[in-house]
Structure formats: C-alpha cells, structure tokens
Specification:
By secondary structure, this protein is mainly alpha-helical. It has twelve helices and five strands. The model has no long low-confidence stretch (mean pLDDT 88).
C-alpha cells in the first residue's frame, strides 16, 4: 500500500478489515480461503453487524486488494452475498446563525482551524496538512496538495482570516527558529522529497501551518521532526463548542464543509465553481447540496403560505 501511495487512513482501514476477515474465519490463512468465505464475511457484516453499504464496499475493496495485490491470487466469482439496504441520506447542514454560534465558542488555534474549514470548504485532514508555502495572501488562495483521490486544487482564502493566519505563521516561524537552534526543525515531506532535497525538511516554507507542540524522533533518519496537530484535538474542540453553543444538532467538523457548500449555493454561486472549490470529481456529488438549501421542499412555496 505504501508503494502505491495509499493514504494513511486507507492503509489503517484496509489492515483493520483484513484482520477482522482472518479472525472471522478462525485465523485460517487467507490463501486457503476464497470467494465463499468472502461472501460469508460480507453477509455477516450486512446482517449481523448492520453496516452501511459504503462500509461493506470498503471491506470488499480491502479483501480484493489482499488477494490480487498481496497474495497474487486470481479470485473466482464471489457468490451472492447479502447487501445492506441502500438509502439516499442527505448531509447534515448548519444554518449561518448556528455556525456563528458554534464558532463564537472557539478560540486559539482550534478556533482558527474550524473557521478555515468553514470559510474555505476544507476537509479536516486538508486543513491540518496545510503548509506555509501553500498559503497565498496576495492571491487570496489556498493550495490544497494531495487531497482526496491524490488531487491538488485551489480554493479561496477568507479575507477575515488573513490577520489571524499571518500571526499564526509568524508564531510558527519563531518556533521553527527555536527548533533550528536545538539542531531540530525538520518536518515530514511527501514521497521521496526528503531524499531528493535533504535540506527541504528544514525549510520554513515546508513547515505545517498548524504544527504539533511536541517533536517526534525518527530512528531511521536519526532526526527529530515536528508533525501537525492531531485531528482528534480539533474534533474534541468542535464537540465542546457545539455543546456550549446550545445548538441542538447532530454535527461534526465535516458538517462545516457541508455548510460551506450549501451557503454558497444559497448565495447564488454557480455549482461548477463550488465543485472546483470542494474538489469533487463529479458534479453529481456537489448536486446533493441543492436538496438541503434553505428553501423548504425543493424551493416550492407552500399553498398555505
């Protein structure tokens, strides 16, 4: 999976499904299992575990990867297996007043990250992986590198966040200078850039905009490097703010991204533009936000009104 440049989340997910599959069949080696055993496992997920269709599909992809890419085995056709009942679920969206109430209960770096996610339509992982070199104040742009599907894209930089982002980058520069004085200051580089450009990891432009407070020691390279803030700390900050705001809604950090797209649609922006900002491969994915706009039932005015 590393050779194929799979993301860390995908690798963890695939390994988890493969482990569950092996334990489900009594730790028998997958080489001695086949299509019938895969079908039995997938049926168990749907019937007994009641997983969503996307979850079952992810498990199937993990097992197909195991057999075709790792074990180099040709799988016969997988027999029929029970699939979960599919349903078209609408994304959870907050109103502008609800977003404001939640964000008003946040402060510090976590508050800046959450405002950036809502203001630019970012995924949480994209906001945390943002590097200093990809923040363009003059163009009012953010360059999102290696997003979902290993795609780069350009999105907007909210003008109201420019002063806070400049202060954050200045703070990172001071922290980086202190690290360099202690013979540290490296960061993680994508792919093979660390070998191609050995000093790039110590360059300020490659540092994360939201670095972690602690450094990690890399035994293989014999250096200390500083990663970005862990995503769970941002998620906890959002849940705390959600409770404190009094907004009685089921929401997560990703809801801010859904709200960004919906509020742009309500403001009259073109759906193709919103598709580009969000980084969706197909406009059909973006079209789902037209069903949750603040216009009641598909924009129809009730005869009662």
């Amino acid at each position: 999976m590393i050779q194929r440049n799979y993301s860390l989340k995908t690798m963890k997910s695939y390994l988890s499904w493969i482990k569950r599959y092996v334990h489900f069949h009594g730790t028998v080696h997958p080489r001695y299992l086949g299509g019938k055993e895969i079908a039995a496992f997938l049926t168990w997920l749907a019937v007994d575990q009641k997983v969503a269709p996307s979850t079952q599909k992810q498990a199937l992809n993990a097992l197909l990867f195991l057999y075709t890419k790792v074990l180099n085995l040709h799988l016969p056709q997988i027999p029929y297996y029970q699939r979960p009942r599919s349903s078209n679920r609408l994304p959870s969206v907050l109103s502008k007043s609800e977003v404001k109430a939640i964000l008003d209960k946040t402060d510090g770096i976590h508050g800046l990250i959450l405002r950036l996610i809502y203001g630019a339509g970012l995924r949480l992982s994209e906001a945390l992986r943002l590097r200093i070199k990809d923040v363009h104040f003059e163009r009012r742009q953010l360059i999102i590198r290696d997003g979902k599907g290993q795609k780069d894209r350009v999105t907007l930089l909210p003008s109201s966040l420019e002063p806070d982002l400049r202060r954050q980058i200045a703070a990172v520069a001071r922290l980086h200078t202190q690290d360099l004085k202690q013979n540290r200051g490296a960061t993680v580089l994508p792919y093979a850039l660390a070998r191609k450009y050995p000093r790039a990891a110590f360059d300020l432009s490659w540092q994360f905009v939201f670095p972690s407070k602690s450094v990690v020691y890399d035994q293989e390279r014999n250096i200390y490097y500083r990663f970005h803030i862990h995503e769970t700390s941002v998620q906890k900050a959002f849940k705390t703010a959600l409770t404190a705001s009094g907004v009685c809604r089921s929401a997560s950090v990703h809801t801010l991204r859904h709200s960004f797209a919906t509020h742009l649609l309500e403001a009259g922006y073109d759906i193709r533009t919103i598709q580009e900002l969000l980084g969706h491969k197909s406009v059909k994915t973006t079209m789902i936000y037209t069903h949750v706009m603040n216009k009641g039932g598909l924009g129809v005015r009730s005869p009662l009104d």
